[in-house]
Amino acid sequence: MFQQVKIAPSILSADFMNLQSDIAMIERGGAGYVHVDVMDGHFVPNITIGVPHVKQLKKITDLPLDVHLMIDNPLEQLPWFIDAGADMLTVHAERLEGQWLDRAIDLIHAGGALACVSCKPNTPIEAIAPVISRLDMVLVMSVEPGFSGQGYIEGSEDKVAQVVELARDCNPDLLVEVDGGIGVKTVERVCAAGADVIVCGNAVFAAEDPEAAIGEIAALGNAARLAALERGHA
Hints:
There is one protein chain. This protein has an eight-stranded parallel sheet with strand order 1-8-7-6-5-4-3-2. The chain starts with 5 loop residues before the first strand and ends with a helix. It has helices at residues 19-29, 51-60, 74-84, 99-110, 156-170, 187-192, 202-205, 210-231; strands at 6-9, 34-39, 65-70, 88-92, 114-119, 137-141, 175-179, 197-200. The protein is α/β, with parallel strands linked by helices and 234 residues long. Helix 1 packs across helix 8. The protein has a single domain (6-231), classed as TIM Barrel (Alpha-Beta Barrel), CATH 3.20.20. The chain contains eight helices and eight strands; from the N terminus they run βαβαβαβαββαβαβαα.
């Protein structure tokens, strides 16, 4: 079933001194989510923002907060981010597996948020197969997580297609999100493979006209997704 591609601008690339203004701008541009990259300097080699920022973001936007936890201790911190107002929470398959990944999904759903699991580029999609029927979204990383502005890793669209195939029978409503190096030159290939949610950093915030960039990227993604559906590939 076709659904409109949604853009989730990553505020890691926004102007932190004018964050409220930048979020108002992406709302005008038609963004579907605010993507919030939480990094702890351990799981990935960078430190970004945390719970206080999510609390403040919740006060200034009605867009859903798509919070990506790139942290060492997600089970401990999930309740903090749920209380702060995260609408969707992503944990990493590299940090949690087996009963611990199930526990994370339980915590997220019990807190009223949507549950997502992410895989780094070198992690096989099969790592999420045991829980894919329970998820609301899967995040495919098309760069190594940690820093904005990286180039798209060629072939990442194949992992998107793998997620779609895994979910086809057990969770057909699963959303597939892609994060890393996505813009006008790369969005078509991931959306043709079945991506629904596109994380954009510099492709939006560094654009000459960020509002127009959101619309252009979404339009390209929608056209590619429709063409693939007509061919029976997504």
